[in-house]
Design brief:
single chain, about 180 residues, alpha+beta, 2 domains, five-stranded mixed β-sheet, two-stranded antiparallel ribbon, about 30% helix, about 25% strand, globular
Amino acid sequence: MRITKNGQLIHSVEDWFRCAPPKGGANQWRDGRSAKEFARAWVESGSVSVPDELVALLSSHPDTQSAVLENGEPEARLAFDKRVGEVRNADLAVRAVSGSAPLALTIEAKADEPFDQLVPDTLADALDRILERGRGSGIDRVRDLATSLLPPPPARVASASSTAIPVVDGRCRQSCLGATA
């Protein structure tokens, strides 16, 4: 596997910082912090070595157990939608193949900080922002991400008597679609 940034090969922790420093620069590049420890996990030996934990994870599923990691880019900025705001900043984006199928991995390194929210919590916060401000694109961003990653759901036929139950502030409000007043 090769790790590069802007055409520069990365073989060492020093190369990693020089070519792809974390967003917070030298303040984040310290022993025990995720950015530097992540780089160490991949290149401390002086050459690229896929961490044992990732090898074990990929080997644990039939769809990825034959994965061959080809190219990686640290601090990769990945736009998955065209919405205003910050794009996804992957600690490492990897191109791979599994069998004959392409495989993409984005890896988020954490050492001394929590992972971000789970999707249901992100959606709840996005709904809160809409209710407070009257606007927000958080729900659309989650939908766009899901649409780009997941297969389309099976077609459903809605009847005139189907019922929708919107959730607002943890309470359910029932309204009949197609009902006459």
